[in-house]
Amino acid sequence: MEESRIEHLKLIQAAATRLGNICLLCKVGTVVLATWILTVAARLAAPDYLLMAFVPAVAFWGLDGHYLRQQRLFRKLYDAVARQTPSEWEDAPFSMDTSAYSSEVASWWHTCRSRTIAALYAPIVVLLLVKALLHWDAWRFGYYGLWIRLTLGVVAITAGIVVVRGGRRE
Fold first, then answer.
1. Cα–Cα distance measured from residue 20 to residue 26, given in angstroms and rounded to the nearest whole number
2. Is residue 169 in some structural domain?
3. What's the predicted TM-score (pTM) here?
4. Enclosing domain of residue 157
5. How far apart are CA 46 and CA 7, in angstroms?
6. What 3-state class would DSSP assign to 136?
7. H helices within the chain, ranges in order?
8. Among 57, 99, 127, 158, fewest CB within 10 Å belongs to which?
9. First vs last Cα of the chain: how many Å apart?
């Protein structure tokens, strides 16, 4: 019976690990798509493409928040299963239901605003917004090269900070 419980803990840990990997893919996807859209906008000298960069940035921000919250829920489930007595575990063996812990984990909205997520997405979204609103006419006059390089530099630095931190969560 104890072997079954250990297998259950391994299943929960594997689910949490997969969710963590998905969070990382969301971050990478945002940086790649934002960079690609900025490059296309610079090549075509069309600031309209900047507005398109908001869609993946905001979508991945929400997805990352969702998957991070799910990962936290599975961590709570793991802790609960690890503390259970053998008789308690036999009442609901191999349960993967995390709904009992939703009140202990921050909501999706609060998770999206956490330091670990907002540190990457907020600068990208703000930078795109500033670029789209304040430098609209610079595209017509050929000054976009400097702004693209600055934007890509800020995105690269932000992504580097996230990678150096090792994906640690709050």
1. 10
2. no
3. 0.74
4. 2-164
5. 55
6. coil
7. 2-44, 48-52, 54-83, 86-91, 108-112, 115-134, 138-141, 144-164
8. 99
9. 34
